[in-house]
Amino acid sequence: MARGGGPLVIPLGTPHAALVVALREISAETGWRLVGLSDLTIDQVAERTGMSRAAASLAATREFDEPFVMESSHPGATGEARVAVARAAERRGLRVTSGGRFHHLTGPVDKGKAVRQLLGLHEGPLFSLALGDSANDLTMLQAVDRAVIVPRPDGSWSETLLGGLPHARRAPCPGPRGWNEAVLSELREIPPREEEGETAAW
């Protein structure tokens, strides 16, 4: 469907409002304190993420995903909490994935499904490239022709991505700089193709 006469939007996930309600139910059911992004002020989002206030305001605008953190006074209880929360989400037809800073509550979809949907909208030969640094990027990276794993801000690597994509390329450094350098490197390697007598870079 088109959003207000603008770009094409294909809803795949569960609406954000329903996810917010579900997260509160899961928190009450499991007994774990789950703090959603929608529970935080813009200043708190900026503080937790290191973003500017303007960027934090944009990041807090969600449609099909509710990022959240698990707050516990019990050291070492994170693994137990993740299992309990994930199971409670599954009972509601939802799923929990882990990103670089937050866990994410979503509908029964993932980044891979979204990428496959996007690629399916295009005709003709395509070359697809994706980059990611967290476990929730795995399905997206598996859905493309070439995957690049980006190190985390502290320089470490996601074991989930390394294990699931043993032949993936690696970005030279974390963050936007690593993403930029990796993309430029990949673009230089893509061979030109002949199309109707002309050479086009793609």
Write up what this structure looks like.
It is a single chain. This protein is of the alpha/beta class and 202 residues long. The chain folds into 2 domains: 16-106, 2-Layer Sandwich (Threonyl-tRNA Synthetase, Chain A, domain 2); 112-200, no CATH class. Helices cover 40% and strands 17% of the residues. The protein has 8 helices and 9 strands. The chain has helices spanning 16-30, 42-49, 53-59, 78-91, 111-120, 138-142, 159-164, 175-189, and strands at 33-36, 66-71, 95-98, 103-106, 129-132, 146-149, 169-170, 193-195, 198-200. The strands form 3 sheets. A 4-stranded antiparallel beta sheet has the order 1-2-4-3, covered by helices on one side. Helix 6 links the parallel strand 5 (129-132) and strand 6 (146-149). The longest helix is centred in the first third of the chain and has 15 residues, at 16-30. The protein is globular and about 55 Å long. Residues 196-202 have low confidence and may be disordered.
Keywords:
202 residues; alpha/beta; Threonyl-tRNA Synthetase, Chain A, domain 2; 2 domains; 4-stranded antiparallel beta sheet; 3-stranded parallel beta sheet; 9 strands; 17% strand; globular
List the helices and strands and how they pair.
Layout: H1 16-30, E1 33-36, H2 42-49, H3 53-59, E2 66-71, H4 78-91, E3 95-98, E4 103-106, H5 111-120, E5 129-132, H6 138-142, E6 146-149, H7 159-164, E7 169-170, H8 175-189, E8 193-195, E9 198-200
Parallel strand pairs: 5-6, 6-7
Antiparallel strand pairs: 1-2, 2-4, 3-4, 8-9
